[in-house]
């Protein structure tokens, strides 16, 4: 992609966006963070520095890994970034998933582009929590309620939400609820370069001065542009197979 079509976020940008967003997220009663790798790892860790549980303790972070693929043709084995989500890393239903029951869980990623990955993450985690509930032995949780009756509530945080028509739709219309979905910045449909992707961080920071990420004014974020054949799709890069 030509350099003049790219926009750059620095580590300082990411740090400050997380710090500012934590003021809102701290009101949600979050007690568990799930980072979508690899773009959600660093924002999730920065957020934890500014977020605490109600008792003042640190919020634990767990991680899942997803990649987005699409077959280039029906008779081809070649795959390119697209619409099919594949798991690279996931939580264990028999142990880790049980820890989600009754929690306010914050799913963290760097960018909400087509929303395909976020949709998959929320829907699959919800399904697995139901399975984990069925596997629980009879008993009560610390607050006196039957643990199988406790609701797990999922929330989403992204650094950047692109103003575009989404291919995926979040369950329960989460993106319409300001207490369930928070994007630090809403941008146009541009290609965003993050610092953890850079080979030369000094050059990256110089380019960020020339092509910073520009937020769309709040008054303009309500309307969504129709997706065209030339729309930019930015998702987690696929791992190389060796």
From TrEMBL:
It comes from the Eukaryota. Pfam families: Pribosyltran. CDD domains: PRTases_typeI (cd06223). GO terms for cellular component: cytoplasm. Residues 17-151 form the Phosphoribosyltransferase domain. The keyword Zinc does not apply. One of its GO terms (biological process) is IMP salvage. Residues 218-242 are annotated as: Disordered. The keyword Glycoprotein does not apply. Residues 220-232 have a biased composition (Low complexity). One of its GO terms (molecular function) is hypoxanthine phosphoribosyltransferase activity. Keywords: Glycosyltransferase, Transferase. This is Phosphoribosyltransferase domain-containing protein. The lineage of its organism: Eukaryota, Fungi, Dikarya, Ascomycota, Pezizomycotina.
């Amino acid at each position: 992609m030509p350099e003049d079509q790219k926009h750059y976020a620095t580590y300082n940008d990411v740090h400050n966006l997380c710090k500012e967003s934590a003021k809102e997220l701290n009101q949600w009663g979050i007690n568990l963070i799930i980072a979508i790798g690899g773009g959600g790892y660093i924002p999730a860790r920065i957020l934890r520095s500014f977020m605490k549980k109600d008792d003042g303790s640190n919020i634990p972070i767990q991680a899942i890994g997803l990649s987005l693929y699409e077959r280039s043709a029906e008779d081809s084995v070649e795959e390119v970034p697209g619409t099919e989500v594949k798991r690279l890393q996931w939580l264990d239903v028999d142990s880790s998933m049980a820890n989600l029951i009754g929690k306010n869980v914050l799913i963290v990623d760097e960018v909400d582009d087509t929303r395909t990955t976020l949709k998959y993450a929320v829907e699959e985690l919800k399904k697995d929590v139901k399975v984990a509930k069925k596997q629980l032995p009879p008993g009560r949780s610390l607050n006196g309620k039957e643990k199988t009756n406790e609701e797990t509530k999922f929330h989403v945080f992204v650094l950047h939400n692109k103003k575009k028509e989404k291919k995926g739709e979040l369950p329960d219309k989460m993106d319409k609820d300001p207490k369930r979905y928070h994007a630090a910045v809403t941008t146009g449909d541009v290609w965003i370069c993050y610092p953890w992707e850079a080979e030369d961080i000094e050059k990256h920071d110089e380019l960020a001065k020339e092509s910073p990420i520009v937020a769309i004014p709040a008054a303009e974020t309500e309307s969504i542009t129709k997706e065209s054949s030339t729309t930019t799709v930015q998702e987690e890069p696929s791992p190389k197979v060796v």
